[in-house]
Each structure stands twice: as structure tokens, then as C-alpha cells.
Amino acid sequence: MPKLKELVKNGNLLTGGHRACAGCAGSIIIRQALMVAGPDTVATINTGCMEVVTTINPYTAWNIPLLHVAFENAAAAISGIESCYKSFKKKGKIKKEINFIAFGGDGGTYDIGLQALSGALERGHRFLYICYDNEAYMNTGIQRSSATPYGSHTTTSPAGNVIPGKRENRKDLTEIAAAHDIPYVAQASPGYWNDFMKKVEKALACGGPSFINVISPCPLGWRYSPEKTIDIAKLAVQTKFWPLYEVENGKHRITYKPREEVDIEEFLKAQGRFAHLFKPENRHIIDEIREEINRKWESLERLSST
């Protein structure tokens, strides 16, 4: 990976002055990714938080070519752009190397855009898809998505007398992407920027389709003070709620193992969306979350040892 001093020479390819919430991890994720990709990059973005706050007509925060498409189409659009590029390059109309990145939130990736993403991965287009996963439909009112974790309060899985938050476990989209047998898949966190940026570099250099799922803490939907975004992004990793790993040519590898065990309660109690779990009648849900985290971590360790 190039040294940070070299990367910063690319400048801010996502400028300041956009209208993201204070403490939004999505803008941090995009800036970190584009710092690696550089100015010779074309991106697509589906409807969602980052599109809404960075492309308010007639302004844009993007200093690269960007195509905004509907919720379900970011992967389809970037595959079409990449195909056009290959045709133009073959004809000699374009000579330089260009990176292709699609950005999407969890609503437009786990749910609405999954079919287009799966198709683009299966066809083998050379592009990187980055999901900034804030674990709900934050842009439209904090509704649950299939990325929303078990027990979380959202406006469509409200914690109360009827249900204690979302009743289902989150979808494991990272492993779904890996099941497509593509060259590179990874999970990352903006709290471990060096790990994330190395993964972006690997993904762009792999020669085929790649996918990185990045946890994206949201002060509004997760209900915490904005200055704690990076602390919570780190806690997600330290508690093994969000393992950092990669799947390179089918080989799993954990890229960060917490030095000290941090119990999942530390992650949960830092967020208002889980406050109801600490009531006596709901504490069994914390135990269930802990058991599921341990099960998934043990499974990941087994995969990484083969």
C-alpha cells in the first residue's frame, strides 16, 4: 500500500461542505476509499444517505465522475460503464487505466440492489462494490433492513410491549458475496483506516469483481453522540460484532484479532437503539447476541485455518 503521504496528494475527491450529519461514517468511508482509488476513478451510487447529502442539485461534493441511479441499480450501472470502457479502450479511444467503484448503503445493497449486485459479480466485471452498512434505511426514517442486527430498535421494529426490537438475525452479505467465487471480498471498519485502505487497494488490483462491506455507524439511527463515531466503529471490531477479514481467491483470512476480549455489552450500551435490552426482561437477548457472535467468530476461525 502507498504511504499516507503519497495518498493525500490525491486531494479531497469527496469535498467538505456536503450535508451529511455530524459524525456520519459514510462520508469518512467514501473519502478513505477515493484516497486510494485516486482521480482516475468513475463511480456510481444508488439512492441513499450518501447520494442525498452529496448531490443536492445543482451542487456535488464529488471530484470524480459520478452517476446516480435508482436504489437497485448501482452495480448494474457500473458494470455497463466498465463494459463501455473496455470497448473504447480496445478501439484506442481511451488509453489510461480507470478504476470503477459502486457505492451503496445496506438498503440498496442487502435488499433492493442484491439481484443487480449478484448478476454483476457473476458476470465478472472489473469493479469494486463498497457497501457502507449503517444497518437500517436511515435516509427514509430508520426502518429495519436485512442488515439490521437482532434486538435493534428501528421505526419498523420498535422495541416495546409487543416486540423487543428486531426479531431476526442480520443477513451475512459478505459471505453471500464470497459465495460468488470472485477474486476479492472483505469486511472493514473506518475505525481501522489502514486495514480498510489496504483492502481497497487489493480490491482494485484483483483484476475482477470485488466487494467490501464496511460498517458505517450512524449517530441518528444508532442514537449516540456524533463525536463517538470512530470509537463505536472500533468497538464493533473489538467485540467481534464486526470481524475484519478478507476472502482472497477463496481463502479466508482474519486481518485483525482483538488483543483483549471486549464483551458485546460495551458495544450495545454505547447506543440508544439497544437501550431496551438492558431491562431485566430483555437481558436474555444480550446473551443470545453474545452466543451468535461467538458462533460466527469460531466459524470464521475455522475457515481461516483451512
Describe this protein with a few key phrases.
8-stranded mixed beta sheet; alpha/beta; 306 residues; globular; 8 strands; 15% strand; Rossmann fold; 12 helices; single chain
Report on this model:
With 306 residues, this protein is an alpha/beta fold. The protein has one domain: 3-Layer(aba) Sandwich (Rossmann fold). 38% of the residues lie in helices and 15% in strands. An eight-stranded mixed β-sheet has the order 2-1-3-4-6-5-7-8, with helices on both faces. Helix 2 packs across helix 8 and helix 4 runs parallel beside helix 6. The radius of gyration is 19 Å and the shape is globular. 46% of the residues are buried.
In the predicted model, the low-confidence regions spanning at least 5 consecutive residues are: none
Q: Report the total helices.
A: 12
For the terminal residues, how far apart are their CA atoms?
26 Å
Radius of gyration: 19 Å
Order of strands in the sheet with most strands: 2-1-3-4-6-5-7-8
- Note the beta-strand portion: 5-15%
What best-fitting shape do the alpha-carbon axes yield? globular
Largest sheet: 8 strands, mixed
CATH superfamily: Thiamin diphosphate (ThDP)-binding fold, Pyr/PP domains
Structural class: alpha/beta
Q: Kindly state the number of beta strands.
A: 8
CATH first level: Alpha Beta
Return the CATH topology.
Rossmann fold
Number of separate structural domains: 1
GO molecular function: oxidoreductase activity; thiamine pyrophosphate binding
Pfam family, one: TPP_enzyme_C
Domain Thiamine pyrophosphate enzyme TPP-binding: 47-214
Keywords: Oxidoreductase, Pyruvate
